Every structure is written in structure tokens, then in C-alpha cells.
Amino acid sequence: MNSRHRHPRFAAVIVATAFALIVTASSRAGFSQTSHPEGAPDSAGPSKVIIDTDIGDDIDDVYALSLALSSPEFHILGITSAWGDTALRSRLLDRLLCVTGREEIPVYTGIATTSWHKAGAGAFSQAPWAAAGKERHHVEGDAVPFLLDQIRRNPGEVTLIAIGPLTNIGSAIDRDPVTFRKLRRVVLMGGSVVRGYDASNGAATPPDAEYNIAMDPAAARKLFQSGVPVVILPLDSTQLRFDDKKRASFGSISTPLTDSLLVLTAEWSRTTGYTSPTLFDPVAVAYALDARSCPATPVHIEVDDQGFTRQTPGPPNAEACLSPHPELFFPLLLPRLLNQRMVGAQACLAVANP
After folding, report:
1. Lowest mean pLDDT segment, chosen from 3-12, 54-63, 252-261, 264-273
2. pLDDT single digits (tens) 270-289
3. What are 320's strand-pairing partners?
4. Axis crossing angle, helix 60-69 with helix 256-272, rounded to the nearest 10
5. CA-CA 20 to 30 A from 107: which of 80, 98, 163, 242?
6. Of 308, 334, 336, whose CA–CA distance to 240 is shortest?
7. Residue 286 in contact with residue 296, Cβ under 8 Å?
8. Collapsing DSSP states into helix, strand and coil, what is residue 148?
9. How far apart are CA 84 and CA 76, in angstroms?
10. How far is 55 from 80, CA to CA, in rounded Å?
11. Is residue 346 part of a domain?
């Protein structure tokens, strides 16, 4: 998800050892005990997922991806970059997978867009970290054939976690709607049903045209009309912020992933001027892991040309979570990020010219 100019994000990390010990104890006690309705691994093995992300602008995408990488319940078939400078987004993804030793996960570059700044998008805040990574060859637009190919190979098994504007998805529907309908489901961070972006004082506001929908309303309409089961995690349920104690836990550990998160967060904060993160996108990943973290109910959604997602009478075409359970979300997120030990064995930085 991209940055929203009126909404704060993430501050500097403060060390709080006592809280970190509590989180660590929680993870040791409960990591394997979480039940996983809907998107869970079963006797057949981990759930097959593809993640479509506009990583690099706002900081919540990288935390969402980090949660997915830290979750053995997922078999990540691939990650696709979405919206704006998709080539640089792919380079950021390559570097993150390299430092964590997860290079077996392929990265595919989505459809680039050139009018994104005019449309109100924020800056690519994590561009320095992305550009310093080792460059790999990517073909613009190969995300769409990859997505369709994986659906054909795994009919009825793939969950698509969409945490960016939906241009790649709209293109996949246009190209092969029959194959697209063979997705197991789409879990989408997007929309605004009853509650809009929080005001600066934290008060809820009326529904807004949420960024991921508003950047490409036509693609969003195609998704809701596709016949694929869709779960939306809208602004109503995704505006969960880190308080000081939660942020402090990252000062108690150093792994390639947590170190990268700290640097990326610092780049984001320096570029945007925001000091507190809102974890929009990780809520969607958490739902795919454990639907209890954000129970959803059937709704009928219409998307207008401005990107508003209106709840209207009609047969349900989606499920929406309107009330999150932060008491389940944070114990799912924090222990996994703090207790993962992913380490890459390859050089991940670009070689400087002599």
C-alpha cells in the first residue's frame, strides 16, 4: 500500500527489553498453536500464495511481506510488483529475499504506470535501499502471465494476497477471465466501507476513496465482478498502529530481516516525515494466516469511478472485515518477526564501478 499524505506511520525504534521478553515468551508458547481457518495449512501442506505488492512507498508492505516470509503456513509461489516503478520495486524484493535467504521465491515485474505521481501517489521512500541491491534481469509485465500460469497449474489452490493497486489483477482478468476464476480466493487490503482514513487526532472519518482502489477503479470493479471469492480488509479494520512498546521490541534483536526493516523504516521516515506506522497491509497477511484476527461478513460492494467502495443492496460479491481484533493480530505479527532466523548466503549488494 502506498503512503497517504495525511496519515502517520513509523517512528525511530526504542529499546524496551522487558517488552521484548514478553513477546518472545508469547511466541515460544503459541507460535504453533494458532488455528488457521480459511487460509491455513492442512494435511496437504502449506497454503499456496502469491503476493502482489507496491512495496517501496509506504512502509507497511515490507512488514506485510516480512510476516509472510516468517510464516511456515505459506508456500509462496512468487511475488509480483505492482504500480509505478515496478522494476525498482522488483529490485527491492530481490534484495529482501537475498538477505533473508529466500531466493527460491521468484519475483515478477508488474505493469509499470507513468501517471502515478499525478494521481496522488507518494514518493518511493525506500528507493536508496532498493537501488543498492544487486540488479537482476526482469521483464516488465511478466507478473500477469506468471499469475495466470500458476492458477492453471494449481486450480482452486492459490490465494492471491493483493496489497497494492490492482492493475496487474485487472490485466489478468482481461487476458483470461476463465483461468482467473480458478483462484481459490483473493485477500485484498483495500476499500473503505463505513470508516475512512483516521483524522490527525485519531478520530474516524466517513468513508474515503482508499488508495489501492482509487489508483485503478476499473481494475477493482473487474475483481469484484470476476466471480472469484474476495475478502477485503478495508480502512475500517486495517488502521492498526504500533505504540512505543511494540516498536521498541525491534531494538532487542539483530537479524538480516530485522536490520533491513530498521533501515527501510528510517528511509521511509526521512522521506515522508511521518513518525508512526499504520500496518494496513500486514492485517491482510494476518487474515490469510488466521481469519480469527479479522472476522469477515458477506457484503455487496460497488466501485465508483473515484474509487469509493459502496456497500449496496444485492447478492454478496465479497466478504469484508469491519472490526479487527488487535489482541490477536499483534501476537501473530511480533513473535514471528522477532523469532525468525532467516539468513542469506549470497552477496546482495550491487558491485560499485571502479
Report:
1. 3-12
2. 998 887 889 999 999 999 99
3. 232, 297
4. 170
5. 242
6. 334
7. no
8. helix
9. 23
10. 10
11. no
Using CA atoms, how far apart are residues 248 and 211, in angstroms rounded to an integer?
A: 29
Amino acid 115: pLDDT: 60
Q: For residue 4, tell me if it sits in a domain.
A: no
Q: Predicted confidence band at 201 (pLDDT cuts at 50, 70, 90)?
A: confident
Q: Side-chain half-sphere of 127: how many Cα atoms within 13 Å?
A: 10
Q: Would you say residue 345 lies in a domain? A: no
Distant-in-sequence, close-in-space partners of 332: CB < 8 Å, separation ≥ 6: 34, 67, 286, 289, 290, 293
CA 327, CA 330: separation in Å to the nearest integer? 6
Main-chain dihedrals φ then ψ at residue 195, nearest 5 degrees: -115, 135
Question: Residue 207 has which C-alpha cell?
Answer: 468513508
Residue 97 in this model has a pLDDT that exceeds 80: yes
Tell me, yes or no, whether 5 lies in a domain: no
Task: Supply the range of the domain harboring residue 75.
Answer: 17-32+46-339
pLDDT tens, 53-90? Answer: 999 999 999 999 999 999 999 999 999 999 999 999 99
Q: What is the dihedral of CA 92, 98, 100, 101, to 10 degrees?
A: 150
Given a contact cutoff of 8 angstroms between Cβ atoms, the answer to whether 146 and 38 are in contact is no
Phi-psi sector, 202: left (phi>0), alpha (psi -120 to 50), beta: left
Please state, in angstroms and rounded to a whole number, the distance separating the CA atoms of residues 107 and 47.
18
Separation CA 3–CA 7 (nearest Å): 8
What is the H or E stretch that residue 322 is in? none
Q: What is the pLDDT of residues 10-33, one digit of tens each?
A: 333 333 333 333 333 333 333 232
CATH number of the CATH domain containing 306 = 3.90.245.10
Number of domains in the chain: 1
Rg, Å, the chain Cα set = 19
Nearest to 192 by CA among 212, 176, 174, 178: 212
Please, are residues 181 and 228 in contact by the beta-carbon 8 Å criterion? yes
Q: What is the DSSP letter of 292?
A: G
Q: Please report, to the nearest 10 degrees, the dihedral formed by the alpha carbons of residues 217, 8, 340, 36 taken in order.
A: -50
Burial class (CB in 10 A: 0-12, 13-18, 19+), 319: buried
Average pLDDT over residues 132-144: 92
Distance between alpha carbon 15 and the CA centroid of its chain, in Å?
Answer: 26
